[in-house]
Amino acid sequence: MEPAVKPAVQSTRTGRVVVLATARTVASPRLSGLITRFAHDTVVYTVPAPALVELVEAGETSGVGVDMALWALLHPHLERHADAIVLGCTHFPFLRQAIERLVGPDVKVIDSGAAVARHTRDVLRQHGLLSDGDNRGAFEIVSTGDAEAVAKIASNLLNGPVDVRGLDDSHITGSRVIGY
Hints:
Elements: H1 5-11, E1 16-21, H2 23-26, H3 29-38, E2 43-48, H4 50-57, H5 64-79, E3 84-88, H6 96-103, E4 108-111, H7 113-126, E5 139-143, H8 147-158, E6 162-166
Parallel strand pairs: 1-2, 1-3, 3-4, 5-6
């Protein structure tokens, strides 16, 4: 997932943007390149947020613990008048409601998920692989974690059944597994 730096920069009124991401993404040359390419006169605060990943993976997307973790990460940047927050990790859309409630209506929360979904649809269409609409597909997750625990949490987060396979026993052919 590529953090949505460009739309955040385009939407800021204060010239201050926060990118919440994993530590690996924050340290990546890819993110640095996006900031250099699109930020220009905008200040971009990159915030590694491994605690948020842990909360989502534990199935916690709201409550006092989530609010405290979010406040600790975001408050210093809100004090500096940041008015756009990029959700730079696949886990963070699950925290979107909590973030929006915490930061209020004057701060835009940006998630690139819809853009990624549109691009995926276009690529599938180009290759003749787009479903006819009758088959909604299924979620399948390959995880190095406890498959049963991951399945329970993922099913709750995604509001439906999820097939989870351990990385060691999965039979993935023609696919890439990307880990963060």
